[in-house]
Amino acid sequence: MSNMASRGPNPDIFNKFIKKLDSLTCSDYYGVSSPGLTCYLNCVIQVLFFTKDFREAVTRSSKSKKSSSSVIDSVLAELFYELQSRTAKTDVLIKRLGISEVWEQRDAAEYLERVLSLSSEEASQMFKGDVSHVTVCRQCQKRNQSSNSFWMLPLAMEDTSHHHSYNVKEGVDAFFQVHSVCGENQVYCKQCSDKRDADIKWEMGRHPGVLTLLLKRFTFNDRLRHYDKLYCNASVPQRLQVEGCTYDLYAIISHLGSLTGGHYTAEIKSFETNNWYRFDDGVVKTIIKRDSSFSSSSAYLLLYRKGSKEPDVMRGRSQQRDHYERRDVSKTPNAPQQQPNKNDDYSKFLNGFLSEDVKHKQEKISDEGVQRRTNVRRRTSSLPSRDPTYTRSEEENRKPPISSKTHGELLKKALEVPRTVAVRRPDKPHWK
Length: 432
Hints:
α3 packs across α7. The protein is of the alpha+beta class. Strands 5, 11, 15, 16, 17, 18, 19 and 21 form an eight-stranded mixed β-sheet that branches. A hairpin with a 4-residue loop joins β12 (218-221) and β13. It folds into two domains: 32-309, Alpha-Beta Complex (Cathepsin B, Chain A), CATH 3.90.70; 333-415, no CATH class. The longest helix has 20 residues, at 312-331. The protein is built from 14 helices and 21 strands. It is 34% helix and 25% strand.
């Protein structure tokens, strides 16, 4: 035995063991088993499953009695439920989508749109955005505008080749650039009653919660009169700025092979584990985390999730509200450095707060306001003071605690007085 230990493990057996481990599927999630060549649908299902808001919306809709029988939310909810514990099967969904030829290759973008259009409005609206097509006459500056909804933005790749990498960020910027038309391409202006040179552009009206970009790899060859696939590399950014809105990449649907014999796979970032996974029908594997831009010759659909930053308007209101609260409390004479905690007697807090507020604001309000505020102070004068040395008597301890109804009445009386400082319960902000 000592001789065997000194020689170490057999390298052939060790290498076989390593290969066996590499071949095993080890992941936190499950794949999709489907009949025929419906890999395009499997990728769509996985992307929707890892879109948190969509998953939750179809689950709510499937439990609602008002749910329409024409939507497929109940079928999707059942699929999502299966995916949480085992490999899911798509037979029911394939039937609802009217797919009769399962051995015929289809377009993943087409079926993403189809599934979204058959889902409830609550679930699908996060993928829908609005763009406006704007035309401005150079002669009279007349502006004509028409709005359209979209599921995905198509990015043309015709000008690229095997030796040139297509830049997705530049493609998005080019989509919203101003294009001039003149000469034979002039547009008719109603105000001028004639064809004029014009500037044309697209403007984002409503940003979708999930922005889907379609890389147009399948183009029609006019010379050969058939469709070709473009295999050029695409530089895919992890983060995009689209018309002032930030989006983060979370899913990629890739097409491998040619038009006549291809295969779809999906790479998705989980919102639960924050890891990336590759989904190849029933096989799921963890992959290296994508932190920056990368290049891909097979990326077809790119899905970006809208940034979770607080809107500027709401953030401004929140900062303004906090400013007023901090300013008024800090300027109050003898104000403590900290608010009372949840266990403090609420009547103490209300009485002390109102009394100090009246003292601080008396010189800025009318005589009538002074009288009304004085009445409020008198009504609350019987409550315990805010003195930290104050101790309750035995008689007061035997009294039942102030009910929530009494709290509400006190606040209602206080709110009837024109005030410049917000009264807030320590355990519950007044704006919620």
